[in-house]
Write a structure and sequence with these properties.
Structural class: mainly alpha
Radius of gyration: 17 Å
Number of strands: 0
Distance between the termini: 37 Å
Shape: globular
Number of helices: 6
Number of domains: 1
Strand content: under 5%
Order of helices and strands: HHHHHH
Length: 143
């Protein structure tokens, strides 16, 4: 009994904060990938400083999803649909860019795409959590 009470207390105290930290942290990290592709920041596209993806190319679309989708995740706006879209993007990225290189994800450098996919699946299933526009909007609509 005592252990279950402790677990409940930990969940009450740290559950909402860790949910928000996961959402905000993952969104900020995801935005960096988009910033490389769209704006040439943080090492640029393909490791070339200042290089960006060609307009309307597959990499450009990925950059738009990563930067602006990541931004929506950070602020917690439309978290469930954006989470689903980004999870699907990361699964596609894994199979398009990484799986053809063979082996396990750690061998073909696909583990980050799959890890992001798992985070976005979590957000799709659990919503934005606290400190989000979605939560604020929901609370405001209730009264």
């Amino acid at each position: 009994m005592r252990g279950s009470r402790l677990a409940e207390r930990i969940q009450q105290v740290f559950g909402p904060a860790s949910h928000a930290a996961l959402r905000i942290g993952a969104g900020l990290m995801f935005m960096q990938h988009g910033a490389q592709k769209l704006f040439g920041w943080l090492g640029g596209f393909g490791g070339q400083p200042g290089a960006t993806a060609e307009l309307f190319s597959q990499m450009w679309v990925a950059g738009v999803l990563e930067f602006y989708g990541g931004l929506l995740i950070v602020i917690g706006l439309l978290t469930r649909p954006v989470g689903l879209l980004l999870a699907l993007q990361m699964i596609a990225a894994h199979f398009i860019a990484h799986q053809p290189q063979g082996g396990f994800p750690i061998q073909n450098r696909g583990e980050l795409a799959l890890l992001f996919a798992l985070v976005f699946v979590f957000l799709f299933g659990n919503g934005s959590g606290p400190l989000s526009v979605d939560r604020w909007w929901s609370d405001r609509r209730r009264g």
